[in-house]
């Protein structure tokens, strides 16, 4: 998978193994700024690991993405007393981001309910497009994931 971080494309490698990425011997993940790659270790339940390994992988991925943002912004190289390289600060951002995003959405500090999908519907007139959009929204309302359906239909979610 590839992702753009402040305009720079990074490759993300999930479920990586130590034999292919020796740095993972001492880490669950890392960001290699020289080749623009983020690597997250394949975790195995071994009795000494966390129970929810998928949750831990997502946390690790967020952590490494934060490192990449700090690097690509120039803060990693130029921060006073290296705060932007600090693992504690990086972890704080990675762990708190979801909570912060939820609050921003709740108070409408950012627009979060807009979804744009580029699909050629094969219709030209605005009235046909509107009719098709209403039909799609009604169909989505019937799906099991009501929150997602309402979001796509233009509701509050």
3D architecture notes:
The two termini are 28 Å apart. The protein has a four-stranded mixed β-sheet, covered by helices on one side. It is an alpha+beta fold. The protein has two domains: 105 residues, Arc Repressor Mutant, subunit A; 45 residues, no CATH class. A hairpin with a 4-residue loop joins strand 3 and strand 4.
Q: What is the structure about, briefly put?
A:
The protein is of the alpha+beta class.
Features of this protein?
157 residues; 4 strands; alpha+beta; 2 domains; 5 helices; Arc Repressor Mutant, subunit A
> What is the number of independent domains?
2
Distance between the termini: 28 Å
Strand count, sense and barrel status of the largest sheet are: 4 strands, mixed
Arrangement of strands in the largest sheet: 1-2-4-3
Return the CATH topology of the largest domain.
Arc Repressor Mutant, subunit A
Strand portion, in percent?
A: 5-15%
Rg calculated over all Cα atoms? 21 Å
Which class do the helix and strand fractions yield?
alpha+beta
Name of the level-1 CATH class of the largest domain: Mainly Alpha
SSE ordering:
EEEEHHHHH
Enumerate how many helices there are, as a single number.
5
Shape: extended
Q: What's the CATH architecture of the largest domain?
A: Orthogonal Bundle
Quick check: average pLDDT?
80
């Amino acid at each position: 998978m590839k992702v753009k971080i402040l305009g720079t494309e990074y490759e993300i490698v999930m479920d990586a193994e130590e034999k292919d990425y020796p740095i993972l011997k001492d880490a669950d993940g890392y960001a290699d700024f020289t080749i623009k790659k983020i690597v997250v270790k394949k975790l195995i339940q071994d009795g000494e690991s966390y129970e929810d390994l998928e949750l831990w992988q997502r946390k690790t991925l967020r952590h490494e993405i934060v490192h990449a943002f700090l690097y690509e912004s120039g803060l990693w190289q130029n921060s006073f007393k290296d705060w932007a390289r600090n693992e504690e600060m990086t972890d704080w951002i990675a762990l708190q981001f979801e909570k912060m995003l939820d609050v921003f959405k709740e108070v409408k500090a950012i627009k979060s309910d807009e979804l744009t999908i580029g699909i050629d519907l094969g219709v030209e007139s605005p009235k046909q497009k509107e009719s098709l959009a209403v039909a799609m929204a009604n169909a989505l309302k019937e799906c099991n994931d009501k929150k997602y359906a309402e979001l796509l239909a233009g509701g509050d979610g």
